[in-house]
Write a structure and sequence with these properties.
By secondary structure, the chain is of the alpha/beta class. The chain has a single domain, classed as Spore Coat Polysaccharide Biosynthesis Protein SpsA, Chain A (Alpha-Beta Complex). Helices cover 23% and strands 23% of the residues. The protein has helices spanning 33-43, 57-64, 84-90; strands at 2-6, 27-28, 31-32, 48-53, 73-78, 100-104. The termini are close together.
């Protein structure tokens, strides 16, 4: 199953924390929020993820790479300029060929997917 994680926002309301890291990379329990989300998706059978990136995208790409270290396939959709929520998902439409889940890259949840 496939999921899209939206992780491109600037997180301006969390400044100065997001001056040096994108919001999804801020740690919760010494682990980036985005990693918690990947683990949730993996537990529920998702094996392929597209992460939409913009602000400090390289920090996310460097940490997660292709996802092999995390047991999940990761690809990226880059936003050259802010596209908003629907725009960021639409930006990766070429990588989506079936039903998919969209989840924010900066929330923590234990929802039963």
């Amino acid at each position: 199953m496939k999921a899209v994680i939206m992780a491109g926002g600037e997180g301006t309301r969390l400044r100065p924390l997001t001056s040096t890291a994108p919001k999804p990379m801020l740690p919760v329990g010494n682990t980036p929020m985005l990693e918690h989300i990947l683990e949730l998706l993996k537990r529920h059978g998702f094996d392929e993820v597209v992460i939409t990136v913009a602000f400090m995208a390289n920090a996310i790409r460097t940490y997660f790479g292709d996802g092999s270290e995390f047991g999940i396939r990761i690809s990226y959709a880059n936003e050259d300029s802010p596209l908003g929520t629907a725009g960021s998902v639409g930006n990766c439409r070429e990588q989506l060929d079936s039903t998919f889940l969209v989840i924010s890259g900066d929330v923590l949840t234990d929802i039963d997917l």
